[in-house]
Amino acid sequence: MTYRLSPVLFALVVAGLIGGGPDDAYAQSGTVEGTVVHAETDAPLSDVNVVVREEGEVPRREDGPVGTSTDGEGRYRLGGLPPGTYRVQATAVGFMPSEKPVEVRAGQTQTVRFALMPQAYELNEIVVQGRGARETRATTVQRVEAAAIQQQDAADVSELAQLIPATHVATNSRGQTILYLRNAGDRQVGQFFDGALLNVPWDNRVDISLFPSSVVGEVTAAKGVVPVQYGTNVIGGAINFQSRTLEQAGQHTDVSAQVGTAAHRQGALTHLGRTARWDYTAALQYTERGNMPLPGEADVPFSQPLSDRRVNTDRQLLSGFARASYRFDGAGQLALTAMQVDAEQGIAPESNLNPARASVRYWRYPRWQKSVLIASGRTALGTRTAVRGAAWGSRFAQDIHQYQTVAYRALDEMQEDRDVTGGVRLVATQDLPAGTLVVAANGLTTRHRQTNTLFDRGEPQPDSTSSFRQHIFSLGGTYDIDIAPRLTASAGLSFDGTATPDTGPFPERDPFYAVGVTSGLSYQLNDTYRLRASAGRKGRFPTMRELYGGALGKFVPNPGLSPVTAWIGEVGVERRGAGLSGSATVFLNRVTDAIDQRTFQQGPNAGKEQRINLGGSRVYGVETTARWPVTSALLFDGHLTWMRPRGTNEGDTQPLEEKPEWLGTGSLTYTLPGGLTLMAQGQYTAGTQARTEQNTYVTLPTSLILDARVGYSVGQWVPEVTEGELFVRVDNMLDEARYYQLGLPGAGRLFRAGLSLSF
Question: 106 in helix, strand or coil?
């Protein structure tokens, strides 16, 4: 292996060898300083990473890397640079990166000013709390960037979510793939696409495995005490999948294709463009697979007629996406986004249940459709006031077919769900002499229509149709203030409410109301370390499905459920630098009236389940992250979280089902000369408790899933191609059985190969 000494390092070494001390070395060096501001408001931006690069590398001094962060006034200073030509880069969450050349001269100071443009997804209120001028960032905000997304070769967004620290992605017995942040409870995490809520309000969750990955440019997670901009029912954090946009003028087209085991086939076409006023994105993706391979030593004693394939796990997915944005003079922008997803899939049966004694889901989804239309915009009202907002409408349709046996031939019952939802969000930001005030209003209205049809000897019987309707609103504000040059604080208050004017065949319910409180502190110790702390109180209302849903006879409705209240807190430290970076966060989520479920042991509902309010639940733990460029060619990126999930009911303590105590992901990426890239990845899960039909708990097996990937750049060999890669990967190399819950193991060993080209 050949190592190349950077000219910057060479200059530093020579300066030391010829006898000059530190003072002499710095006398022969130069300085770069300046400010970083918001391009649309000219407000100073704090905590912006500023590094000096030479030929793509970050040079280093004897006292550390040549990198820093801006202070509360947006200022930065980089000293001790040997004379030469460099590129200075400024990056910040929620803004487009900017890079400028600079000529450093001995004994002189060069001034470089940056004006960062907001990312196109700034309207989503997911990343940027205010306009960036006095953002406290007291809570945890994490991103999965484009490079990591590309290396996942993901068929859907669920394969991207697992890269977020302390995130558990699981497929339940309904076949829904759901993500949980820090072991948050069911229906506590908000999932957004370009700022619009993906969750179906009837259930307040959505199967994220049925959303395409080809248009996702970045994934952002907010944990702990979430700001008021998220609206109501988001007490376990929020995930935002942000669509790709072109950062510079021009056009860009991506074409990709994959094939693999289990009859996996995937193709995607994405086109992006940008002019002085317009930017647009359009994409199509098709994915299909057969039954997934059954992992070795999987314990599936019932409802598993195939020896090597997991029965009834096939899928077809077709999606279309389009987005266009127009920028007006000044700070105005208007965008329109449309997305359509059509899918069909089977659901693996619960293979721990004996169908002779228990009710087993033999389900298929012959129809799963999601349509979303989003209109968003922003404008500045003077130099210190800005208003931004979004309105969206969505339609969700799914058909559930319940079969009599694992043969999936004779129908037993059929359910048709139709949901129409409209939402709106308005956020006003006002810069004040001592801080920034953010006021947010959210509204959501939804209608759910459900039709059930029973079958007798294959013939449909008269059906029953029920209609439900719900209104949800949230109004709140947050005030951010600079207490000292390195110390910022925030305080927020919100008022949330929900009403259910149409409850189908059930009695009417009174409206629910809740008050939320948020607070936070952030202290920048130096250019590298930052401390933060936050605490708050938030509420979640029972969903219509929790109150009234029967799940094709699997559940007994419970219209008497009470709202959930969460007390949330975290304390963390972050290290940010050009070398090793990472974080450690201690967190606590204490919930009263937590919603769980039980199984009836006797009586007319024996074997069925019902949702109940526990006395409470608590999850506390430690989340750690690390990113270390070991060399210019070798990168380690990973996270490990320990959690203690427990529930209380009638004075007794019990585990929280399907909540792991240990979660970890680590990856090593090695870039070799000639365009070859190697990656190894591991996912660790341990300490998960599962509830049996007898309402007892057992521990699911510990799992370590190892993946490997080899990529080769082919752009240099194909004319007219700016970028291209050929890859081969194997997922779950050891064919490990990973259980999401009893009787539901994940897929075994999978092989995939693919090609992507960019024009």
Answer: coil
Taken in order of first residue, the domains within the chain and their CATH numbers are 7-116 (2.60.40.10), 120-758 (2.40.170.20)
pLDDT tens for 685-724 read 999 998 887 878 899 999 999 999 999 988 777 777 788 8
- Give the Cα separation of 134 and 384 in Å (integer): 12
Alpha-carbon span 212 to 209, nearest angstrom: 8
Cβ atoms of 218 and 146 closer than 8 Å:
yes
**Cα gap 206→177, rounded to integer Å:** 8
Q: How far is CA 573 from the centre of its chain?
A: 21
User: Residues near 203 by Cβ (< 8 Å), separated by ≥ 6?
Assistant: 187, 543, 544, 545, 549
| Strand, coil or helix: 18 | coil
Extract the tokens encoding 737. 């059985």
Residue 674 DSSP label: T
Backbone angles phi, psi at 546, to 5 degrees: -65, -35
Instruction: Give strand ranges (E) for 348-410.
Output: 363-380, 385-403
First to last CA, the chain: 33
Q: Identify whether the C-beta of residue 655 lies closer than 8 Å to the C-beta of residue 692.
A: no
Distance CA 729, CA 714 (A): 17
29-47 pLDDT, tens per residue?
A: 889 998 888 765 667 788 7
Over the stretch 212-265, which tens digit does the pLDDT of each residue have?
888 888 888 889 988 888 888 999 999 888 888 887 788 999 999 999 999 999
Q: Which of 249, 244, 248 is nearest to 282 (CA)?
A: 244
Q: Which tokens belong to 281?
A: 């994105």
Q: Which of 329, 433, 428 is nearest to 386 (CA)?
A: 428
The residue with tokens 């076949």 is 175
Nearest residue to 598 (alpha-carbon basis) of 560, 651, 640, 558? 558
Question: Going by C-beta distance under 8 Å and a sequence separation of 6 or more, which residues neighbour residue 468?
Answer: 202, 447, 448, 449, 450, 500, 502, 503, 504, 544, 548
Residue 447, C-beta contacts closer than 8 angstroms, at least 6 positions apart = 419, 420, 421, 467, 468, 469, 502
